[in-house]
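ok trying again, last paste got cut off:
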Amino acid sequence: MAAAGALPAEWIKNWEKSGKSEFLQLCRMLSENKSHENVTFRDIQQALYELANHVVKGNLKHDQASNVLSDVIEFRDDMSSILADVFCILDIETSCLEEKSKRDHFTQLVLACLYLVSDTVLKERLDPETLESLGLIKQSQQFNQKSVKIKTKLFYKQQKFNLLREENEGYAKLIAELGQDLSGNITSDLILENIKSLIGCFNLDPNRVLDIILEVYECRPEYDDFFVPLIESYMYMCEPQTLCHILGFKFKFYQEPNGETPSSLYRVAAVLLQHNLIDLEDLYVHLLPVDNAILEEHKREIVEAKQIVRKLTMVVLSSEKTEEKEKEKDKEEEKTEKPPDNQKLGLLEALLKVGDWQHAQSIMDQMPPFYATSHKPIAIALCQLVHVTVEPLYRRVGVPKGAKGSPISNLQNKKAPKQAESFEDLRKEVFNMLCYLGPHLSHDPILFAKVVRLGKAFMKEVGTSKKLNSEDRMVKFQSDGNKQEDKEKMEILFSCLLNITDQVLLPSLTLMDCNACMSEELWGMFKTFPYQYRYRLYGQWKNETYNSHPLLVKVKAQTIDRAKYIMKRLTKENVKPSGRQIGKLSHSNPTILFDYILSQIQKYDNLITPVVDSLKYLTSLNYDVLAYCIIEALANPEKERMKHDDTTISSWLQSLASFCGAVFRKYPIELAGLLQYVANQLKAGKSFDLLILKEVVQKMAGIEITEEMTMEQLEAMTGGEQLKAEGGYFGQIRNTKKSSQRLKDALLDHDLALPLCLLMAQQRNGVIFQEGGEKHLKLVGKLYDQCHDTLVQFGGFLASNLSTEDYIKRVPSIDVLCNEFHTPHDAAFFLSRPMYAHHISSKYDELKKAEKGNKQQHKVHKYITSCELVMAPVHDAVISLHLPKVWDDISPQFYATFWSLTMYDLAVPHNSYDREVNKLKVQMKAIDDNQEMPPNKKKKEKERCTALQDKLLEEEKKQLEHVQRVLQRLKLEKDNWLLARSTKNETITKFLQLCIFPRCIFSAIDAVYCAHFVELVHQQKTPNFSTLLCYDRVFSDIIYTVASCTENEASRYGRFLCCMLETVTRWHSDRNIYEKECGNYPGFLTILRATGFDGGNKADQLDYENFRHVVHKWHYKLTKASVHCLETGEYTHIRNILIVLTKILPWYPKVLNLGQALERRVHKICQEEKEKRPDLYALAMGYSGQLKSRKPYMVPENEFHHKDPPARNAVAATVQNGPGGAGLPASLTINAAKLEESTAEETDKLKEKTQGAVKVINKAANATPKVTTSNGNSAPNSKIIKEKDDKEKSGKEKDKEKKEKTPAAIPEAKALGKDGKDKPKEERANKDDKTRETKEKTPKSDKEKEKAKKEEKTPKDEKSKTVVTNTESKFTAEKEREKEPSRERDVAKDMKSKENIKGGEKLSVAGSLKSPVPRSETSESEREQKRRKVDTHSSPSHSSTVKDSLSELKDSSAKHYINHTTPALSKSKEREVDKKDLDKSRERSREREKKDEKDRKDRKRDHSNSDREVPQDSTKRRKEENGTTGSSKHSKSESPSDSPRSNEKEKEKNKSKSSGKEKGDSIKTEKMEKSSSGSKKESRHDKEKTEKKEKRDSAGGKEEKKHHKSSDKHR
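nice, full thing came through this time. structure:
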């Protein structure tokens, strides 16, 4: 641009010609350029300035310039102003110049242009001096003064009034304007205009006007819609901070002590905040108290709460109490001056009231948690806000049916939170608000109920959506994606609901004052949660919530204090009032209360009953909490489950279990959690807590498991359900129908029925390994019993309460149970048994319906068919349970039948039914006689009794029919039961091992069942079943079974033995009964032939008298075993045998001397254990007392079984039969099994020796034989049997012998003979010994002890070697049996010699047992014993022992007869009998004295001599006394390798000697036994013979003994 620089010089030179026009053109062009206003403005200024500058410099005349300017001035409106600016600048520039001409030129130019620019503009912009020179003002100085005055007036003099009295009219008009009726068409804009006018007119201060507007707004809060827009518009005229400062000043005014900020101010501030007219941060700083002070106050509250707790838990003595109270009063007085209001909380309350949740939330976030809501007004304001927010959703889903409810109006506020229409909205808005409320929702119970109901509605929706999901009818979801999303939303909502429950609902319930309705309301929601969630909530509530807030800390302390107060006063008498107090306290704080109550119950179990009764005022929620508290108490890891002695379960656990049972039965508490807890403990291998299950089942179902049942109760338990309930239990637990239904439902709903059974069954066998370890055996036994009993009880509950379908659906087949779940067989059958019974009965009913044939025969047939249908798969299934070898002897059908039947199937307890019916009749009579009872009650009671009576009779009839059907079925089955492919013996072993022993210790009823079943199998005449063997094996050696039992098993085993003994005693008591029930039954065959051979003739049967011998032997065996157990010193042995003995007391001991032996041992236990083991002492004392009371019922031995002297009759009989004894009588054949007996019998002894108590037993049991011969404890019995045999033979059996001289009997008899000869001698000797001992026993207790000690020293090799010979002899016996009859006699002799070696030699050992015996004497017996040991272990479960006893029987009698075959000797005896009647008695007494003396000397010598010094002659002498030297001489001189024929003569001699000696011995014994005078004649004669024999024997004894030793070595 041209003007941008300066005006071109040629323009000035040629001004008149072209310059002027050029300049005008430039100015016009610049003026017209509108696009760049600023640029143009500057360019024009520049152009005019250049022009004027040329004038000042003198390049242009001032009039030329003024002419141009007058033209230019018209180009723009503001040109004169621009020109004035130019003059202003030039004025400043020229005034600084020293050249006067330039200043003059400027002045002239301005004067020339005065008409172009107005005076006022120039006066504004030019210097006063310039103006004066221009003549525009008179004096510059005056002008300056005037302008200062004006400025002061303008800027520094106040003209706005902010005090009302300064401008009362203006302010009055303002207030009237704001206070007028606003209901018409008046708007805030209109009023604003009026306010502006008033401010202008009356010079009102705008800030004061704003303040007045706020004041009026405070007074007229209802006009929000008017004032808020007014203030908003007004704020445009003010600075933004003004409003905030004004409010701040207002708040500041009230921050004095005792100042109280009005709520209206809070409200105005809240509304302004809500409309964002001010910022919270700006206002917050103006409010008091500061945040730090709030924090301090919060901490102080927590400390105070803790102090209160400490005070409540401290024990304060009365004097201290008064001082404390005074101090507290002083403190309260100090607190009188109260601090100013908390303005932050006031503002917060106002914000909540107007619904400004965002700002309220940010204030709460700056405070400690729940500090704000702990102030009631704020809590209530927040509750109100929640009310409003949930209203629409609550109206839609939460209002209960039939309830109107009072609708809540919405906040008239567009900025309030959005109301919840769905559960999703609830989560976004309401849940957050509730979390800030926390425990202080307690201030508004109605809102509490609303929230709970919404939760309930949500859970209902979740439930229905789940159902819809499961049925694939989700209409509202189009795709799986939607479904998934919805599911996630539901889960999030559910977890939020749980959080709200945990953080808000439960703590609020705690702070509510005893509100049972809220508790029930809450339960309505809780019961829709699975128990896992509920218990977790209770756990948080109990252990964490109470520590989260000072208020809750206080409440907890107060609750405990109150609980202590109530519990101290709780007794049976004041249960009701105390119960009400407990109820009140529990509505709000159940966890704390129950925790304390349970701690008291654990300490004092006598509180259980009153506490249970007092819990009747609880709400459903409280019962559920109680269940949780019980589980928590049970699971307490800090508590020891055992007492300090480690042998018993802790009493706290027992008390809790007992409480559990009682409380769960009485009140409708959910059981699932408790049952699951027990299951989890079992999974972890801990069975302590089964105690709880046991108690719960017992109380809820009325099924109790106790070992103390009477026989009457047991009998009742074998009947139907009604009889069980009436007569089977101790406590008549009535009305268990509902509670057992609840228990059943809990088990089925949570699928715990079978798992618990399986876990218990597995745990039972695992107890020893998993929980045994370091624990005391007593405790392990207890745990095992507890586990087992609970299984039995629980299984019984399931069987009687589950429907057939439920049961069958849950219990798998037997092979799956055993093989897959590893359930022990007894438990598996126990669980399956009800299933089979259900199955059979339902099949039977089906078949009955199908055909209507009503004949009994038809019914039985149908029953058997249904049994076959049901049991066939079971028969197949059981095969996998055992090795194939097992099924060679017993059939799967037999096995399954045994395990699937119960006592209910075998017998009807008529006595029990009669007993119960009679009781009811008595009851009815009592009701009739009762005058006080009201008639309607009488009628009811009578009806009840009559109905019960009818039920019982109906049940009896039903059971009778059922039993008849079962027996028919068994009759048909029995022929296929026992296959006995190996031997009958082996069959019995399997039967005992796999059936009887496992089941007889399973439960008391099973014990009775086992005994009945054995009897039943016998009565059914089952092929291949030897009843004798079976009973024999059961009674023969009970040590091992007893020792391996737990306490309860011992009790059940005792019951089993008791029932077995009952049967045996019944047969023993009366010949007729015996003949009727056993006479010609296959079970009493004494010859064990191969299965195929049918030899059922009368001669093979055991006759009555011999049966009595056998029973005596069994009694003796029981005594021996008992004495052994009592003397071991082992806790388990002693305890178990005492339990067993107590149980079998009705039938044992029956024999006086056995009873006395037991009595002494038990007395000894009483003395020894009194201090050491009090429980054993108690048992022993108990048994001792009962035993004494039974003494009158015991009989001498000769009354228990016949004991005639066998001598004369026996000889006579043998004469008739000839020397071969070919046609042996029936009684003899018993002894066929005796061969085996001797071996097994010795195993007893061997076992006992290993215990180190042999001698003590044999000696100490002074009634029992001292002897430990090769026959062990059988010796006296075989003797007795001999005597019986002889007597029998002398009479009726002579004829039989003639008739029965059949070849079939010969080999057997002979074979027996081999083993038999020697035994009588030993046995007599023993008897003799026994009688002597009876006298000597008492003074020699010290010696006995010494003996026992020495006995323990007896070398072990002695034991081991003895076994060998025995097996040899057995083996040869079997071999020889097969040889042709021509060699029979020789064979018999040979065997006899061997047996003599065994017997006599063994006796010598027995004689000198007190000190170790030289090897030569003992080696033979040692070998026998070794062999025996091998035998014993060959079959478990007493196989050998059972062999024993029968074989022993046969043995002994065979011996008798062979020993008496010398005719000459017997004749001479006959002749001498009459002569020596008188002398005999004298001789006898003399003889006895001699022997006594010798015996005493022997014993003394034994004690004094050292091991090697035992003189052989003392052993000899003892043998002479025992009457065995003769036999031992001969036996020693022969080794088994000698040919049988070579020694025949010696044997003959030996026979005659031994037989004579036996006679003599037996006579002595009989005298001791006080036998009848009728036998005296024979015995006198015998005695003389004996004396002669003894002389002869003693002469040859020494050589023989040496000879024996050498042959031993040779061997």
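cool. Residues 935-973 form the longest helix (39 residues). The chain has a mean pLDDT of 75.
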